[in-house]
Specification:
- It contains eleven helices and nine strands.
- It has 248 residues and is of the alpha/beta class.
Amino acid sequence: MEQKEVRKMLEAVASGTMNVEDAMLRLKMEPFEDLGFAKPDHHRAFRQGTAEVIYGAGKTSEQIRKIAENLRDHGQKIILITRMSREAAEVVAQALPLRYDEISRVGIVGEVPEPDGVGNIVVATGGTSDMPVAEEAALCAEAFGNRVVRLYDVGVAGLHRLLAHQEEIMTARVIIAIAGMEGALASVIGGLADCPVIAVPTSVGYGASFGGLSALLSMLNSCASGVSVVNIDNGFGAGYLASMINHM
């Protein structure tokens, strides 16, 4: 049950269109269900404002399907599945209306809601190779009710490409800066924008990038104010945090 639904229910009790017993019954519903291999959290949207998301890596196709069906049966309108394989997508799609994005490996069950965030979330990448992480961030942010502006391949190797989008950068409510290699994009954007910048290091790069560690350390040591950093390749974490900021 989402926070909006709880508010409507309480307003209905206050207005007399719903009795207290019916409201109590809905609130007392089991907050999670034990499937043996997973315990889907049905009260997460009530507690946190955002419903449970399924992390697909390491789960079998059948486990993902059963968890998704359980969430759907308990009224979750949109179900987000990250790090989902093509094989798992084919299995889930046989049971539920799934939209699957091959680049980001994100699956979405249900209709993406109309944006209700305050402003725009800009998702910018250093290069095209960063797009899998960027699309994970962008699709997650859209699934949480945000307008997303994508600025791809605007890295510091050709700074004029980024500067051509100053209006989008300077009018954003929050920016997700995604880059591998040396990870300099976050500092450059942080020096231009007046909004929070969420930096996402990616594992893109040659040997001495150490699978994204070089970009992570660069972003952590950014001289630009207002830059925070999430884990390597964590597009979901960036999209989730950006949505929280955009809904404040």
